[in-house]
Amino acid sequence: MKTVTIxxxxxxxxxxxxxxxxxxxxxxxxxxxxxxxxxxxxxxKLGKNASLLLSDKxxxxxxxxxxxxxxxxxxxxxxxxxVAVDVPSPQQLSEETRGLDIxxxxxxxxxxTVECEYKYIDATRAAAGEIIFRVIKLLGVELxxxxxxxxxxxxxxxxxxxxxxxxxxxxxxxxxxxxxTGIDFADINRCIFDTVSEAQFELQKLAYSILERHLxxxxxxxxxxxxxxxxxxxxxxEYGDVAQFPRRLEGVEVGMTIRPxxxxxxxxxxxxxxxxxxxxxAETFGGGGHYFAAACVIEGTIDEVKEKLLREVEKYI
Length: 317
Description:
Blueprint: E1 2-3, H1 6-14, E2 19-23, H2 30-45, E3 49-53, E4 71-72, E5 81-85, E6 102-107, E7 118-121, H3 128-138, H4 145-158, H5 169-179, H6 185-193, H7 198-210, E8 212-214, E9 219-223, H8 226-231, E10 254-262, E11 265-272, H9 278-284, E12 288-289, E13 293-299, H10 302-313
Parallel strand pairs: 1-7, 2-3, 2-5, 3-4, 5-6, 6-7, 9-10
Antiparallel strand pairs: 8-9, 10-11, 11-13, 12-13
Helix pairs in contact: 1-3, 2-3, 2-4, 3-4, 4-5, 4-6
């Protein structure tokens, strides 16, 4: 693996031929979807054969981006070159996409453990979408409304609507340039932050009833299990932004959302407020992420997973 500059990343993209797959991470959020759609559109405008490859199903809240590019929901047959966007670790990929040979990674996570030929990381950016915004401009591709809508989705999503501390002047200037293309940014924000499906609404009601507080109220856990979901009559949970719920409770520094991954393991999402670096905790369990938002997968029963988490969090809180 070779770490490269953004100008070298541009050269690598310009040199690509044949079929190109732009890879997104599992449990896709607005940043990976928006970044993936925008880069795919830009490469197609350059005359390249690029498609979006999902590691998971396309979220309904971003349906306004559906159909803008060709999308694969499984790895296609044949030869192709893979470019990954906003993918920080192998844990963030599906079992199928985890085995791909990745040519180039474009990401903003401080710790990136994805195996690849080339990697461009800028951890100072609030969203991977900011990196893709800069790359597209370096490629000389015009920011039309489709590309701008995708990029605004990415940047607004991962900056929390421009309220997270990772937001800076460059974030706002990028957003302003995208808004100036004429996109309906207000409607995009409504889709991202103010709209939930019926399934998500039911899950949110359940979340309020099962929230646990620990460590003198400084830690909160949402422990979703298959049994809890079945009892609530939720057979296909749509988690959305439920991971934000625990940290919003007054006095909580770190919130942890636990949800079933398979029969033997759980996926854990961390969110913190002021001082706790949750990426350090996630890395302990083989995951990663940002200072205030991270994720990992832990094996064991729900009680074992909670015990492991609290034992580790207690060291930092």
